[in-house]
Amino acid sequence: MVKPLFKVNTPNEVITMLKNHLNLKEITRNNIEEVDIKISLHRFLAEEIVAPANLPGFNRSIMDGYAIRAEDSFGATDALPSYLKIIGEIKMGVKPKFKINPGEVVKIPTGGMLPEGANAVMMVEYTEQIDDATVEARRSISPWENVVREDEDLKTGEIILRKGSRLRSQDIGVLAGIGKINIKIYKKPKIAIFSTGNEIIPAEGEPRIGQIRDINSYTLGACIKEAGGIPVYRGIIKDEVILLEQKIKKTIKEDEVEAVIISGGSSVGVRDITLEALDRLGKPGVLIHGVSVKPGKPTILAIADNRPIFGLPGHPVSAMIIFDLFINPLISWLQGGEYNYNSTKEIEAELTCNMVSDSGREDYIRVFVYEKNKKIYAEPILGKSGLISTMVRASGLIKIGLNIEGLEKGSKVMVRLF
Amino acid sequence: MVKPLFKVNTPNEVITMLKNHLNLKEITRNNIEEVDIKISLHRFLAEEIVAPANLPGFNRSIMDGYAIRAEDSFGATDALPSYLKIIGEIKMGVKPKFKINPGEVVKIPTGGMLPEGANAVMMVEYTEQIDDATVEARRSISPWENVVREDEDLKTGEIILRKGSRLRSQDIGVLAGIGKINIKIYKKPKIAIFSTGNEIIPAEGEPRIGQIRDINSYTLGACIKEAGGIPVYRGIIKDEVILLEQKIKKTIKEDEVEAVIISGGSSVGVRDITLEALDRLGKPGVLIHGVSVKPGKPTILAIADNRPIFGLPGHPVSAMIIFDLFINPLISWLQGGEYNYNSTKEIEAELTCNMVSDSGREDYIRVFVYEKNKKIYAEPILGKSGLISTMVRASGLIKIGLNIEGLEKGSKVMVRLF
Q1: A75, B126, B243, B389: which one has the fewest Cβ atoms less than 10 Å from its Cβ?
Q2: Helix axes A268-279, A241-254, angle to 10 degrees
Q3: Nearest-CA residue of chain A relative to B107?
């Protein structure tokens, strides 16, 4: 009745397999769109951005005061100020018509352009205006003090953002700053989700006794969105080889999805059906059957038609953990981006009890994080991986590495927050 | 020419002022919408969710094997197995018609419902089927082993999610699990953005010398989106009191925004104009003028018509830092949620050089984070707060608290990642 998982792979092996068997270059090359930068937050750039000109493009004051030749202030103090001649006032946004000669200054507001001959701005706080044409300067200032040089923000030809960058608010700001209001980005990958299991009914239905509602379509759909993809909900499917094969082929063709997730089928019979269906899809077929992760061991990965197809465990907790390990980074790669698992939000906490773990597998422990007397604690939430409520109560996950046999109470752990 | 900032407030005072002068209850009460849970990720719940029934609602096997009375396995070993009578097989999703009597078992797949009389599942690995009607059980198992009890995930009447919770993937999963596919959430707050400054031109324009493109509308718009709000771009506005007053009133009325951000106007003349315009909007008017934050000191906060109006500094870096301190949490409160600054993504790093800071103000230092020999370092990025490129090069910010006069090279710092 039972077949053992034929070979359990480590998470790193799965990642390597994915990278080796997918032609990401081909996928990304064909998935580029041009959009307004206003809708480009967290998207991945499909072009390199080079500064077309200097920014700000002129020497700009960052203070209210007087544009001055710094040399004219040298040695000035409260007791012995320099007396300088006011020859005019800078208007915002306009190129000054005058030139500063030795002993001359002009009034300048924050953001104003320095006139020719000026190389610094004396803050108004360090001056006193004597009459319409004369000001006392009471400090010595250095050349270029209180000035943003014309190329200080960006220099013509400088690379600002690289292809594959994930755009943050400030990156969008710099694009606006150079007038690049439309950019090429990679399309969000569409990912199809199927749930299997003859006991599963749609969430909107009323389960008869023995049936349960589909949870995984919803959690995985939300995970796809959070990772930057577009979920294509394909509903619940009966555990039949030909049907599964046909539905997967159909969604790849008609919905143009870049990957497929099938969740469910933790029973051996169903797993065999999924395996057979995935192997019929094309070369190279099933690559992974079983990973050394708990919860999440009965995971399947196949690749066909340059698309990964994942068979995730039916237990909601296991499915989310496996998603996070493999599909989360995949969604970045499909958009030409890198993915750095470690750069995501983590917090250090102290473990509140001993945790055992088998060597040779990665354990992911759900924890509740709380603060007490200014210290942060992580309290494991025990419970079977079929219980979605354990994830709802949890603040995050801690990982016990492959070669670690457990953690002691009081250990410092890194919690990956949800 | 210059007026000093009349009273500089600490960031905590600003937060308190916001909370005291805004009637958040009234705002949230009127901003509720009902949506499909599929589009509710990261939104804030406007209702309490209670389990309407037990989940899974029946005793469910988590293994392939035999549903059994645990008592019938007591004492069983490889050498001395129990012989049990197979009386049938459980079908997925169907309530079993039979009842288990002492000495009897039924075959059960993962996810199947336990029949009456059974209180455990013996894994198939620990059995051997002798003939159609007989199986050897080779382990002693405890009552309820390998079973999810009918109310183990959720109990009828249990509070699952509280009002004001920010929905994560697993929260959406649990809602699906109880069949709650439409929920009440708070609307995303709309926030208007104006840029001021006579030297500022639209990003799509070609600046003449002395002019620069509008960066803040784009960075702040993206920050609003990232925080969960909807930016309403209102463009660039001339520095005139009546015009500013009218435009703000118009966006509050016509766009139904919950808050207004005006950025720019770091020069004293423009700041005075903004102050006067904000004070004309209504009671209580301008509450804050100047905060003890660097960069970001010349920040204005007014409240009128139960809406906060922020005057942010014109320098892009300052504007982003002040946004993060005050408007980021505000966007959560406007949706009935809490905001925990500390729960956002942070990473510990070692500072690569000494940093000085004045006591009595919070300093935010832009840093580049890198890894070397398995250690994480934070390298300060120096540069004026007018330079957007410094934010583009930065990975995050470190804070030097109000009463700290600096940090030494090698100090451990927490970096708030972008």
Answers
A1: A75
A2: 50
A3: A1
Pairwise CB contact (< 8 Å): B170 & A418: yes
> Residues A370-386: pLDDT tens digits?
999 989 999 999 999 99
CATH 2.170.190.11 positions along chain A are 60-148
Of B93, B267, B391, the CB nearest to A64: B267
| Residue ranges of chain A assigned to CATH 2.40.340.10 | 345-417
Chain A CB contacts of B226 below 8 Å: 41-42, 169
In A31-186, where do the E strands start and end?
32-36, 49-50, 60-61, 65-68, 82-89, 104-108, 120-123, 127-131, 134-137, 147-148, 159-161, 182-186
Rounded CA-CA distance B364/B325 in Å is 11
Cβ <8 Å between B110 and A314: yes
Contact residues, chain A, for B217 at CB < 8 Å:
176
Residue B223 in 3-state DSSP? helix
Residues B266, B271, B275, B276, CA torsion sign: negative
What DSSP element (H or E) covers A253? Answer: helix A241-254
Chain segment B168-223, per-residue pLDDT in tens: 999 999 999 999 999 999 999 999 999 998 899 999 999 999 999 999 999 999 99
Whether residue B386 and residue A60 make contact (CB cut-off 8 A), yes or no, is: yes
Query: For A34-55+161-186, which CATH superfamily applies?
Result: Molybdopterin biosynthesis moea protein, domain 2 (3.90.105.10)
CA atoms within a 13 Å half-sphere pointing along the CA-CB vector of A220:
37
pTM of the entire predicted model: 0.93
Could you tell me which CATH class the domain A11-31+189-342 is placed in? alpha beta
Which residues in chain A are closer than 8 Å to B93, comparing Cβ atoms?
197-201, 208, 210-211
Give the mean model confidence (pLDDT) for residues A29-56.
97
Residues B392-403 as b/e (b if ≥16 CB within 10 A, e otherwise) read bbbbbbbbbebe
Contacts of B320 in chain A (CB under 8 A): 169-170
Overall fold of domain A345-417 = Beta-clip (2.40.340)
